[in-house]
C-alpha cells in the first residue's frame, strides 16, 4: 500500500515565514497576534521572528511599541514643546578635548600625559603608545603569539627606561 503524506499542522517557523512574506514590516507582536488569531496554541518568541526576518533579508529596526495613532498625553506634550536651547552640543567630544588632562590609550586605560622633562620623555611615551597600537593589530590578526610576546617585552623595557629617567 503506497504511503500517503498526511497533512500536519503548520509549524511555528513556517507560520512566521508566511506572515513575514505577506507583511515584510511585521514585528514579533504582529506575528504573535496572527498566531493567536489563527487559533494556534503556544507562543512565538521574539528570537524566532528575528531569525526568520534575517533569513528573509528583512533585517532592520522594526518598532514594537504603540501604533501611530495612540500617543499618550505625556508623549504628545513632550513632542510639541521643545526645551529652550542651552548652548550645549550633543555627542562625543573630540579627541583633542580631554576633561581631566588624561586620555584613554589604545586599550581604554587612561594614560598619564608625558612629563615636561624634555622631548626625550615625550618621544619615549609616543613610542610606547605606537607599540601598544601595533600589539593590538597583531592580536587581531591572531596566530602570532611569539610576535605578541616580543612586542610586550619590548614595551616593558621601553616603559622601564622611560620611567627610570623620569624619576
Main-sheet strand order equals 1-2
Number of DSSP-assigned strands: 2
Strand content: under 5%
Oligomerization state = single chain
Helical residue percent band: 40-55%
With helices defined by DSSP (H or I, 4 residues minimum), what is the helix count?
6
What global shape is seen? elongated
Distance between the termini: 94 Å
Order of helices and strands: HHHHEEHH
Low-pLDDT windows of residues: none
Explain this structure.
With 167 residues, the protein is mainly α. Among the domains are: 12-55; 103-166, no CATH class. Helix content is 50%, strand content 2%. The protein has 6 helices and 2 strands, in the order ααααββαα. Strands 1-2 form a two-stranded antiparallel sheet. β1 and β2 (110-111) form a beta hairpin. α1 (12-22) packs across α3 (46-55) and α5 (119-141) packs antiparallel against α6 (145-166). The longest helix has 23 residues, at 119-141. The mean pLDDT is 74.
Core attributes:
mainly alpha, two-stranded antiparallel sheet, 6 helices, 2 strands, elongated
Task: Give a summary of the structure in a few sentences.
With 167 residues, this protein is mostly helical. Among the domains are: 12-55; 103-166, no CATH class.
Layout of helices and strands, plus pairs?
Elements: H1 12-22, H2 28-37, H3 46-55, H4 73-80, E1 103-104, E2 110-111, H5 119-141, H6 145-166
Antiparallel strand pairs: 1-2
Helix pairs in contact: 1-3, 5-6
Amino acid at each position: 500500500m503506497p504511503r500517503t503524506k498526511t497533512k500536519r499542522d503548520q509549524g511555528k517557523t513556517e507560520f512566521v515565514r508566511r506572515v513575514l512574506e505577506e507583511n515584510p514590516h511585521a514585528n514579533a507582536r504582529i506575528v504573535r497576534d496572527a498566531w493567536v488569531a489563527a487559533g494556534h496554541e503556544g507562543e512565538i518568541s521574539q528570537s524566532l521572528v528575528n531569525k526568520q526576518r534575517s533569513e528573509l533579508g528583512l533585517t532592520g529596526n522594526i518598532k514594537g511599541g504603540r501604533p501611530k495613532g495612540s500617543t499618550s498625553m505625556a508623549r504628545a506634550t513632550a513632542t510639541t514643546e521643545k526645551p529652550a536651547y542651552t548652548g550645549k552640543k550633543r555627542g562625543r567630544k573630540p579627541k583633542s578635548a580631554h576633561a581631566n588632562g588624561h586620555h584613554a590609550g589604545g586599550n581604554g586605560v587612561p594614560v598619564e600625559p608625558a612629563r615636561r622633562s624634555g622631548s626625550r620623555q615625550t618621544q619615549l611615551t609616543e613610542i610606547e603608545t605606537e607599540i601598544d597600537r601595533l600589539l593590538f593589530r597583531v592580536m587581531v590578526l591572531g596566530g602570532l603569539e611569539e610576535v605578541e610576546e616580543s612586542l610586550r617585552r619590548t614595551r616593558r623595557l621601553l616603559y622601564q627606561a622611560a620611567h627610570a629617567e623620569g624619576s
